[in-house]
Design goal:
76% of the residues lie in helices and 1% in strands. It has 397 residues and is mainly alpha-helical. It has a single domain, classed as Up-down Bundle (A middle domain of Talin 1), CATH 1.20.1420. Strands 1-2 form a two-stranded antiparallel sheet.
Length: 397
């Protein structure tokens, strides 16, 4: 992620140790996004001082951006000491860390609300979980890939990437999307049959939980396929190797610190999102689908677009599609299972509009990328699709 926003000169990239390395990573002179770290103490003060919840929401959401960037930087430092495949997996995993943290915090908030008989508050948290997961998939497949194709296509007439990598990932994405559709169809079909609603909901929950296990197993098989049995086939055309600029211990410490602060910002944001939505006139669905993924993945988005401009499309596509696959086949099932453990009835029945939008995004992304070539016009079409979907959610009540 850090490649997109770092402006450090080569002379400044000497190996740093201890606290100076952590300070350098957070220095606004070395990274443009670090200027936004000022939002972190502001959000914390707004929470402690019980200021307006819309202020808490806005600054906590802004604060997640540079923190997610720092997590990505630390992960990249760790990844330089591993193989290309393992490094890519680390980048994808910690690139989605903000989404994972937000979703898990919201699940526990829903469990707490249910224990206090706050049904409306619990349902609002469940809606936030569902919409943020769908929004991450849509943002990566349409917005990030669209911007990458557009920016790269404007600088290079036609770009190439490994279609086998995209093909296997989009196939698993399609399977994951089918898992989102089936509970909704299951519910509609049984409702038409006149079966009791309580029994239907119980069936939808069990189908979702068992499906989550299947999806996580499928994702584990994908990793085994990519990292072990077919690692040579799944390698991209770019093999650039970057030297580490931090000690492994310092990178791990930076990752830990950034993760803790992302968790704190997520806690503030999740508990203020409902009131903030009412104050700024935006629905919780629009905030979850569009705003949260946009801010949480900002650093990763910048990286994908910048490397596309450098004609490194395998890396760019890997960021966009790989992150979507991990959200759909690992993060969403993980959240379903965590919800099951803590007693929250969260299923894959994400809503008709959300599910339809996700399926359309997967289909158009698969159609455009399966030939292994890209140009700016394809990017424009992906962005147009994202704009249409965003407008639909903007007016969603």
């Amino acid at each position: 992620m850090s490649e997109a926003v770092e402006v450090v000169s080569d002379s400044e990239k000497s190996m740093l140790n201890g606290i100076p390395a952590i300070i350098a990573a957070c220095d606004p002179r070395n990274s443009i996004l670090n200027w936004l770290l000022i939002a972190v103490p502001i959000a914390a003060y707004a929470k402690l001082a019980h200021l307006d919840e819309s202020i808490q929401f806005i600054f906590s959401m802004i604060g997640i951006m540079p923190l997610a960037f720092l997590m990505g930087k630390a992960t990249e430092e760790i990844a330089t000491r591993t193989s290309e495949s393992v490094g890519g997996l680390l980048n994808a995993t910690f690139g989605n860390a903000a989404e994972i943290i937000i979703a898990v915090v919201a699940v526990f908030a829903a469990a707490s609300a249910f224990s206090e008989n706050d049904i409306d508050g619990a349902n609002a948290m469940i809606t936030l979980v569902k919409t943020s997961l769908i929004g991450s998939i849509l943002g990566n497949l349409l917005l990030v890939m669209g911007l990458s194709f557009l920016w790269g296509g404007l600088r290079h007439k036609e770009q190439n990437f490994n279609p086998q990598v995209v093909g296997i990932n989009t196939t698993l994405l399609l399977l994951s999307t089918i898992c989102l559709i089936l509970p909704t169809v299951f519910h509609i079909a049984l409702s038409i049959s006149g079966i009791d609603e309580t029994e239907i909901i119980s069936g939808v929950l069990m189908v979702s939980r068992l499906t989550a296990i299947v999806l996580m197993a499928s994702y584990a098989l994908l990793l085994f396929f990519q990292l072990k049995t077919h690692s040579d086939m799944m390698s991209g055309s770019s093999h650039d190797h970057e030297e580490p600029t931090m000690e492994l211990r310092d990178a791990g410490l930076l990752l830990l610190i950034a993760t803790v602060f992302v968790s704190l910002m997520a806690e503030i944001m999740v508990h203020s999102v409902e009131a903030a939505g009412e104050a700024i006139g935006l629905s919780a669905v629009f905030i979850g689908v569009i705003l949260l993924p946009l801010f949480g993945n900002a650093a990763e988005h910048f990286t994908a677009v910048v490397v596309a401009g450098k004609n490194r499309m395998d890396l760019s596509i890997g960021i966009a599609v790989g992150s979507s696959v991990q959200i759909a086949a690992f993060v969403a099932p993980l959240v379903i299972l965590i919800s099951w453990i803590v007693g929250v009835d969260l299923s894959f029945e994400f809503g008709l509009l959300e599910t339809a939008a996700c399926m359309l995004a997967v289909l158009i992304a698969n159609s455009i990328s399966r030939d292994g070539h890209s140009n700016w016009m394809e990017g424009a079409m992906l962005l147009a699709t994202y704009a249409i979907i965003a407008l639909s959610f903007l007016y969603y009540p």
